[in-house]
Write a structure and sequence with these properties.
The complex is a heterodimer of chains A (227) and B (251). With 227 residues, chain A is mostly helical. In chain A, 80% of the residues lie in helices and 0% in strands. Chain A contains nine helices and no strands. Chain A has helices at 3-9, 11-43, 48-63, 66-81, 93-119, 123-131, 136-166, 178-188, 193-223. The radius of gyration of chain A is 21 Å and the shape is flat. The relative contact order of chain A is 0.15. Chain B is globular, with a radius of gyration of 18 Å. Chain B is α/β, with parallel strands linked by helices and 251 residues long. In chain B, the strands form two sheets. Chain B has a six-stranded mixed sheet with strand order 6-7-8-3-9-10, with helices on both faces. Chain B contains ten helices and ten strands. Chain B starts with a helix and ends with a helix. Chain B has helices spanning 3-8, 51-57, 83-88, 105-115, 121-134, 150-162, 180-195, 207-213, 231-237, 241-250; strands spanning 11-22, 25-36, 40-44, 66-71, 74-75, 90-93, 168-172, 199-203, 216-221, 224-229. The chains are: A mainly alpha (227), B alpha/beta (251). The interface between A and B is medium-sized, with 21 and 28 residues.
Chain lengths: 227, 251
């Protein structure tokens, strides 16, 4: 069986797997963005405790592989929390564990992007806002973050694409997303390995391309507002 | 101009023994100044003399290391006071304008009054348009800061400050970043404000302007007040050698 045959005959298993990958990615990107904004704000807060918390978080995530993080969260956490009645099964199984692992991972990188974006905004913007009587939070929300968003956008999109592809690592804990589906099909040995993995790659290429194109449109729409 | 008259007016800002350091560097040494209601004070002096730092201490953009700053009876060096509330009454105009680049001109002006719930959107918009009319920018309401010239930006920045109806206006070298042909339009707006009785503290290198509008000139050097007096006293009859040498260089 060649590439096209595999592509057409395996639609019934690949479409649900694709759905799983996309669902995983969407949830993770939302959670990671929220985490990124929170920890990014911590980093620039000038509050020592918050800075330290986010430094430790980012340091640990960046200093360890995603695969190991996933094992710690899925196997490690399950075992050490079992005495307290915790089970991944009770809260959605490996899918939830995958979301937690990937979100924590991508969140740390997003935090660095948010920090960079905020630091790139001229300090005069914050000073002007504060001098009018606006609080730090209001100034962040109305002036600094919207401006930072323009500069962060390319990096955010880049991180989205990386995270989207990182979902393939989560196959290891048994979520039947694209990569796991490829593994199952190739172990059935009806088809050869090569065409199966090319089909898997093809699906990733399609969703990454779609994401890039959407991102390009968004970027074009907001860029006329930037300075 | 009318010095006797001014000295009898209530004190608006009272600074006593203000000290400010940046690390090891002492920028302000024991500064004491009183500014009365409606007074226009111009701070002059060489770069690095502490003029801007002094101004930025007055609305706590810089934290003082010692001394007291009392604005309208409130000690703003006290950490417990609500500094945001105090800042609502102190307008500040910056050398580099600092207009909010993500907002159009109208929203630059209405943001603070609306967010701080001092006005509803409609009233804030009306007031903003009046102010833009006053500074000659009514036709730029929908433009973004990036589309304006330096002089226009600074006039808009003044309008933004005025939208809060402040009692005091601080100007930090408002014309230093402008092309020469745009300096006049900004100074004209400031002159009108001075005439209307706004209390103003202005850090400036525009000596002609200082001479014309100031009630009092303060000459600073090395973190001290070297000499202060009426424009006539400073520009025509300076006593201190450092004042004379500075004025000889800039006039």
């Amino acid at each position: 069986m060649g590439f096209l045959e595999v592509l057409t005959t395996s639609v019934n298993t690949f479409l649900p797997a694709l759905g799983q990958t996309v669902r995983l990615a969407i949830v993770v990107l939302i959670v990671a963005t929220i985490l990124g904004v929170i920890f990014g704000l911590f980093t620039v807060s000038n509050v020592k405790v918050l800075e330290l918390i986010s430094k430790i978080y980012i340091g640990i995530i960046r200093g360890t592989p995603l695969l190991v993080q996933t094992f710690i969260i899925y196997y490690g956490l399950a075992q050490s929390l079992r005495p307290f009645g915790f089970q991944w099964k009770a809260i959605g199984g490996p899918f939830t564990a995958g979301i937690v692992a990937l979100s924590l991972n991508a969140g740390a990188y997003m935090a660095e992007i948010v920090r960079g974006g905020i630091e790139a905004v001229d300090v005069g913007q914050m000073e002007a806002a504060r001098s009018l009587g606006l609080s730090y939070g209001k100034a962040m929300q109305k002036i600094i973050l919207p401006q930072a968003f323009f500069t962060m956008l390319p990096a955010i999109i880049n991180q989205f694409i990386i995270t989207l592809k990182d979902t393939s690592l989560i196959s290891i804990i048994g979520i039947r997303e694209l990569t796991q589906n490829g593994k199952i099909l190739s172990s059935n040995a009806v088809a050869k390995s090569m065409p199966i993995w090319l089909v898997v790659a093809f699906y990733y290429l399609v969703i990454c391309t779609v994401l890039s194109q959407v991102a390009k449109i968004v970027e074009r729409k907001v860029s006329h507002r930037a300075k | 101009m009318q010095n006797k008259n001014i000295a009898e007016r209530p004190v608006k800002i009272s600074v006593k023994n203000l000290n400010k350091c940046f690390g090891e560097l002492e920028v302000l040494k024991d500064m004491s100044v009183e500014v009365h209601e409606g007074e226009v004070v111009c701070l002059i002096g060489p770069s690095g003399s502490g003029k801007s730092t002094f101004l930025r201490c007055l609305n706590r953009l810089e934290d003082a290391n010692g001394g007291t700053i009392i604005v309208d009876g409130q000690n703003i060096t006290d950490k417990k006071i609500n500094i945001n509330k105090v800042r609502e009454n102190i307008g500040m105009v910056f050398q580099h304008f600092n207009l909010f680049s993500n907002l159009n001109i109208l929203n630059n002006i209405t943001l603070a009054p609306v967010e701080l719930k001092l006005m509803n959107k409609e009233d804030a918009r009306k007031k903003a348009m009046e102010l833009l009319e006053r500074v000659g920018l009514a036709d730029k309401a929908e433009s973004y800061p990036a589309q304006l010239s330096g002089g226009q930006k600074q006039r808009c920045a003044i309008a933004r400050s005025l939208a809060m109806s402040p009692d005091v206006m601080l100007f930090d070298e408002p014309t230093s970043a402008l092309d020469p042909e745009m300096v006049g339009e900004v100074l004209d707006v400031m002159k009108v404000l001075a005439k209307e009785g706004m209390t103003m503290i202005i850090v400036t290198h525009e000596m002609g302007f200082a001479r014309e509008v100031a009630d009092r000139i303060i000459f600073m050097d090395g973190g001290y007040i070297v000499e202060e007096g009426t424009p006539d006293e400073i520009f025509n009859h300076a006593k201190e050698a450092r004042t004379i040498s500075f004025l000889n260089k800039v006039l």
